[in-house]
# Entry
Amino acid sequence: MELEVVGLKKSFGDFEALRGVSFKVPSRRTLALLGPSGCGKTTTLRVIAGLLRPDGGKVIFDGRDVTQLPPRERRVGVVFQSPALFPNLTVWENIAFPLEARGMSAEGIRRRVREVVELVELKGLENRRPHELSRGQQQRVAIGRAISSEVNLLLLDEPLTALDENLRADISSVIKNVQRTLGLTTVYVTHNQLEAFMMGDFIATMFDGLVDSYADAQTMYSKPPTERTARFLGFTNRLEAEAELLGPDILRLVLPRGELRLNWHGPRLEGRVSILFRPEDASISIDEEGLLEGELLSSTFAGRNVVAHVKTSQGLVKCAGNDSSRYRAISEMIGRRVAVAIDLDKAVLIKADGP
Amino acid sequence: MNGVKGLLTFVPFLFFLTLFYLVPLVFIVGNVSFTDFIGIIGDSYIHRLLYGTFVQALLSTALALLLALPLAFFFARYSFKGKRVLEYVLLTTFFVPAFTVAEGLIVLLGERGAINTFLSILLGTEEPVIKILYSMWAVVLAHVIYYVPLAALILEQGFSSIDQDLVDAARVFSGSLLRTLRAVYLNALAPYMVAASLLVFAFSFITYSTPMLVGGRFTTMEVEIYATRFRPISSSLALLQLSLTLAISTVIILFRERSYFPPPAGYPAEEPISRLLSKPSGVLLLVYVMAIYVFEISPVIIPMINPFFEAGQTPLGVFRGLQEFKFGFGLSFNDILYQSLAVAVVVSTVSTTLSICIVWSSKVSGGFVERATSVLMALPLTVSRSSLALGMLLSYGFGITKLYGSWVLMALGQSAVITPLATRVIEASWSRVSREYREAADAHGATTLFRLIRIEIPLVLPALIASFLMAFSSSLSDFTFSTFFSTLNLMTLPVAVNILIDTRRLSLALALTSLITTIVVAVEVLGSQLSRERLRVM
# Structure
């Protein structure tokens, strides 16, 4: 089933939680909705589930407007951040709940619950109550409950947030397995980049009640479309440069320490541009070759690498691409002028939109 | 939720309000004669009555709070094995019928009561040494006994909200104990002190059975309304009393809505009680707590065991005496017991069912309706019961229905005051049913009804049972509606107690009281095990 949301708006008092959210999720694919706390991800999810009525906009399932339908008529499965399992029901009863609510026959319920128990690997735990389960098992039950009736859409609201690292891997593989087996269209809400890239075929970033960027996972990771998304995804260093197209695919960049030419296949760029790069793609240059220079303020040993801060004419630059074996050499240079080397192939060039 | 649905969800509450409060109020107002009302406003007897009611309520409040303060500190600060049980024991005094404590005072402080007998022997005098029974002071004393546990319970929460880090910081920076007390303790305790004062004052102001049993010539507005219930002036008195109690209720609600009650600080964890023994002030506190327990428990225990200690009386003999006594038009003890139990079952069923409907509908609509229901349901908690009983007598007893003499009227009256209590117990429990459970149910295809039956009712079931039990014990203890609505053919156990006291059969009255008290305490203990919400007072 294809999901489309168009111009969703929702306010709580004076606070505008959604200010016109739009995106599309192709059938059987997973969209990871990524953004900081309070950006409107969960509100979007709740509107899609029908738990909240939007003030404006539409929710469309396979071309059908379902905005006014109550949750029970939308056939969605939801996994909440806390498993929200009904404490008075056993594992079996929790998974059977959506089937009973939809009036399925007893035999049908038995058959379907058995299948789901197998799928989410809960065999032998059917008669336990939620408080008798580990956190991971509880989340499996929540996933089982979400998919037990024939749902059109699976909505997951930060399902791994409250779990430790081992359980995260475990539960994410269960989700992937379920998603693949049932071929469900899925919306996965998270504030965690790693989870988003692990789970999503597509990523949409959200800030302040709006979708900022939408791209497939690989593009989003390597070349985020906007500066805000890039910064959110870890491209925390920013330089400004003058760009000039010298030919169809050659770009000239003028930087404080000179200029350079790049092969350029992206959108047309001219004038002031932002060069955004991750700290791990910047390092202190021993041989004084680099695009930037500045005063080395600090160096911190961080196990596999050395994290250094350099004060440049364009602001503070964090360099984490230094091998830890260079810690002593770099530390001795504190207070001196150093050059910073940047891997421009991994940097993002975007038309400058302010500091 | 659309407009029509929103209105529909308000129906259970409106039904409750109209049936139990608005109709009786309309009948009271309809019966008020302007001349009577002006007359009582300027009547010096009414002035004295109001002044007396006010002074006794004020004295009861001040003394109860004063005695409760160290007790609350003790429970908030120190941990020991059996603390929970000890707290329950203290609360027993609050749960038992008010007439139990009043009778305890009769036994202890009567001219030939235990205390006076002991003091007479000690001082070698024939005259009773303490002569406070059948005066305002006896009423105040009974209230203090009755409300110290309530005040201690509220103040304990205040002490628990004090962060020890804050106390240490105040000690370090202010350097003076007095400033520390002012900066930390007074600040944290103030809202709880006001809350406790308001409640104790309100309950003492609407006192009824206590002045009736131990007040002697001292009387209150509530008793006066009862005494004049078949005279036209009673409506004017009721209107005046209703206005006063509604004003008090409004102050309580406004205070509750606008105050911030700091939650438990979590630190320090309570200290072991052994620390108390290491310093003289600690030993003093311990002795004080023990004395308070004697003070609180003896008026409850003494009337329960007294009849069985009297010469020649065995428990069986006492109950045989009860069986043989003829109440009213030949009503036997068994008749009254069955009538009481039947009314209690009906009241529990009605008030619990109605409470479920009110809470559920308010939760379904949420927002304004939920808020308004919660606030308005607090109003009846401190409303004048005598006025309400009078209103019911006028409206359903002799007005639109002729139910006087029927158990239905008794059940209606008791349900009116018990339903708000039941609603609070259920509402508190229902509020803790996580929103996520409701949303999970909705998202996975449940209708509102399916969700109610499969998820919400099972989750609040302990509170429902607790509220049923609480309603049952409140009905058995009810003195106001029982005395207002009883006839020679229809009586409840508290009325039988009253008759036995009036006919000077104190031993039988005490035996009957001990029976009621035992049932009430057993039911309350069971209810408290199921839901702590029973103890929610603010």
